[in-house]
Design brief:
Blueprint: E1 6-12, H1 20-35, E2 38-46, E3 60-65, H2 71-89, E4 93-96, H3 102-109, E5 115-118, H4 131-143
Parallel strand pairs: 1-2, 1-4, 2-3, 4-5
Helix pairs in contact: 2-3, 3-4
Length: about 150
């Protein structure tokens, strides 16, 4: 008897990005896919073309917004779309890959079955000029959904 695959999704800015977050996420998603234990979804906040760091064509790709918008202006539309996507694809675990996407993950996973993992690639106390990132870290830390029931 074979067990069902864990449905896991990674939320990041865009698959096109050439930064460290996209690089690490592409390596991790590829490794998870190869184990054949997970059904892997990659969700971009904004639209993308399948480029970047050699993302596998075998992964499931989605995007929330057709054009790039600041998080302050796009968070509510993106939240509605992400909630629908999580439900439709029956995603069990959502990994938010950056402080900018933590609040979006919190809003989209509140009061549903999807578990949230907040994966920030910097120190919680790191100083930044991006006010939304600072507030996002605090909001996500305060409202995070615990991994263990």
């Amino acid at each position: 008897m074979s067990a069902e695959k864990l449905k896991i999704a990674f939320l990041l800015g865009s698959v096109n990005n050439k930064g460290g977050i996209a690089r690490v996420t592409s390596l991790l998603t590829e490794s998870l896919y190869r184990t054949e234990l997970c059904e892997v979804h990659v969700i971009g906040y904004s639209a993308y073309e399948q480029e970047g760091y050699g993302w596998s064509k075998e992964l499931n790709y989605h995007h929330l917004l057709d054009k790039n918008r600041p998080m302050k202006k796009g968070i509510f539309k993106a939240t509605r779309k992400l909630r629908r996507l999580l439900k439709k694809q029956q995603i069990e675990v959502l990994v938010c890959c950056s402080s900018l996407f933590g609040p979006l993950g919190v809003l989209a996973t509140r009061f549903n079955a999807t578990r949230l993992i907040y994966w920030d690639h910097s120190s919680f106390f790191e100083s930044t000029a991006h006010d939304f990132a600072i507030g996002g870290k605090r909001l996500t830390a305060f409202f995070r959904i615990p991994w263990c029931p």
